[in-house]
Structure formats: C-alpha cells, structure tokens
Amino acid sequence: MIIERIVSDGLAHNSYLIGAGGEAAVIDPRRDTGVYLDLAEQHGLAITHIFETHRNEDYCVGSLELAEKTGAQVLHGAQMDFTYGVPVRDGDEFSVGPLRLRVLETPGHTDESISLVLTDTRVSRDPFLVFTGDALFAGDVGRTDFFPDRLGEMAGKLHDSLWKKILPLGDGVIVCPAHGAGSVCGGGIADRPLTTIGYEKRTNPALDMDRDTFIRFKVAERHYYPPYFAVMERYNRAGPPPIPARTPRPFSPDEVAGAAAKGALVVDIRGPSAFAAGHIPGSLSIWQRGISSFLGYYADYTHPIIFVDEFDCGVTDAVVQARRIGYDLISGYCAGGMTAWARSGRLIGRCGTCTVHEVDATRYILDVRDIDVRKKTGHIPGSAHIYAGQIEGHIDEVPRDRDVYVICDSGFKASLAVSILLRHGYTRLTTVLGGMTAWMNAGLPLEKEVAPLMGAA
Questions:
Q1: Residue 61: strand pairing partners
Q2: pLDDT digits (tens, 9 = 90+) for 223-245
Q3: Which domains are assigned to the chain?
Q4: pLDDT of residue 457
C-alpha cells in the first residue's frame, strides 16, 4: 500500500494519494496537479478515482484538470449540485486495486461533506484509516459557521457525524484530515501530521462534550472569513478555470510604475525589515510564505498583480501560492527586485522599526494577531486589537495623529498591517520586529484579562 500526504504550505492543506495493485486514488487535490502525476508515475500507479471530501472554501481544487490528464472519475458528496463529477452517498464503496474506500456522509462543516474509510482487503475487513476532510482534525473539529442562519443545525450535524459515523470506526483507526495547524478551517488544529480516533477521543477538547454543550460551543465560535472564500466556493462548485499557460514576465521599474498607476497591485514578498527599509510606494507587504494566507484579504480578481522580491528568488513560489487561491491575473514581477527599483531613481517608501525594548507604552500599540492567539497568550497592557486581515475595514479606528506601534507574532503580519495603513495615508508607523515572541522572551509585561477587543470576525 502506498500512502502519500501532500502538504500545501501557507494553506496548511493536506491532500493524499493512496494506491495498491497498480491503481491509485487522490483525495482533495490542489490546483497544481503535477505532484500527483509524478507520485503516480514514481510508484507505477494509474490514478482511477478523485475524491473531494467537500466543496472547499480556502483553495481551488484540481479535480477537473487531474481528471482530464488521467481519465479518473471525480466523486463528491450528493448533498450539493456540483456541475461536474459523480455524486456519492453513504455506504457507497469503490475499489482501488485491493483497497476499498467506503463513503460516510459526515455533514456539519458543509452539507455535502463526506469521509472515506479505507480498508485493505488483503489484510482485514476492519477499517485501517479514515480521510475525514474538515470534519475531524488533530486536536480540533471543523468550523460550522458557513451558514449563519443555520449555526445550531450545522453544529448538531457535525456532532452526529463525529459520534455516530467517525468515532465508532475504532480507536486504532488512523485519521487523515484535510488540514493541519495554521488552517483557517479550524480554530485550534494541532501541529501533528496525523492522529488516531482513540488519541482524539482522549485529547481533543471538542470530543469531551455532550451534544448540547458541543452545539453551544460551536455556535459561539468566531472564525475569520477572508473575502476570497466566496470566490473559492463558486469556483469549486462549478469547477475552477484551468491554470493559465502564460508565465508572468519581468517588468522594468518604469513598467511597474505604469501598471500600478493603472490599478495593478504591487505585492512585496520580502520580510518586515527589508520592507521597512525601502519599498515601492503603495505596495502591499506579504511575505513569501504568507501569500496564500493573506493575499485573499486584500487582492481582488479583476486587477493584475506584480510581485517584488530581492533578486526575484521567491517569485516562482509566490505565483504558485497565488494561483492555488485562484489569482490568475499575475502580470509579472519587478526584474532585479527592489534593488532595480532603487537604482531607477524613483521614490522609495519607508517606515520605522524598533525592538520590543524600544516600544513606548504611552503610544498607541496595535496588536494585529489572531484574536484567539491574543486571548490565549496575553497582550501588551493597553494595546488595541485589529486582525491583520481586517485592517482596511477598521481603518478609522486607528488614530492618524499619534505614533502607532504595530505588533504581531513575529513581525510579518505587522508589516502587512503597516503597508495597508501606509496606503491609506498614515505616516507615524513603526513595525515592532520580533513581535510578541520577542516581547515574551524578553519577559516584558503581559495582560491576560479579556477586554473588549476590535476586529473579531
């Protein structure tokens, strides 16, 4: 038996290839499908089935493109009218060589969510592992807030899916979830590549509740909802467009300036220190590995994107990440990076930086971390809070007539927030390098009382 887990960094998305006897199935493929074709060829397998555990919200699926390249059948839950593929229902079974995949309808995260129970018939009739999609994670369960008018209903459905379908499979059954730590599809996913049903029953706090308590807990949850989710939901119901064949081209500084003047979004993928020292005025600061997490908060799908790096080293990865969440209007990149822009003699934007020891507690301190992280770890006394992905919607809450220190976990989200504020005309801005990680390591004061905070979704 071959089991390969493919991790898409930034999205914290897990997809899987399983195979035996010359055949293979892919579960929840991402949009750039080459990895599955390479793995199948490496193991001498023909991909015959493609399963989607649900209509994903946070990335473009690659099912249609993979099916076109392999002739495999696309299968997904019957409780949604997809415009492609074949609907499956509870109890349906599929053979992949000697392996069997049995469908469990496990709604709650979405109505059409399914889980897939894997059995190796050469060994036993007992389940070996289960692909749980967004129903059960390591240390957490799926969010149930995508239908605001049905919060209690969806929470109840997820509870029933977990207790009546997944947990009875047996303590030794391996759980293969669709997401890992850092995903926006759960609030407290543990940093473990996989887990077992028994381990989750003993350690997962969401599984230590009766049904009524579970429903109240899920209804009270608050998760962030990036604007691009709506586009992903539409794409993944109808099938996303194929990835464009064109390759983003190098732009001269003059071309970058001209494109920006016509509405192109310039995205600087360097780190906080480099951005603060000098950047293209009006550019958005999103570090290379943060593209798939934060581009969807601030980029639309109608304006071109131009990336800026130092010596163009990270541009290729940034393009891949952007395309995984459906951004295909990527015109190009600034050839030669920020160095080329500086040599062109054009204006350069800058902002302040400081260490945690230089933060003036009498100034306005803006914490842009995830609200749950802030509550769990504590915050700087007197600091305000707006999540980095929601700065634009709360821009008037940030004073223009005061010095503003912006802090996050380590500096990267703070740089993003600063770039948004700069685009709105703010000037008295300082990025706190090292963020709250440095603050806590330095033993500086923390406040853990929960005060009224701004910016929770």
A1: 30
A2: 999 999 999 999 999 999 989 88
A3: 2-238 (3.60.15.10), 249-343 (3.40.250.10), 352-441 (3.40.250.10)
A4: 39
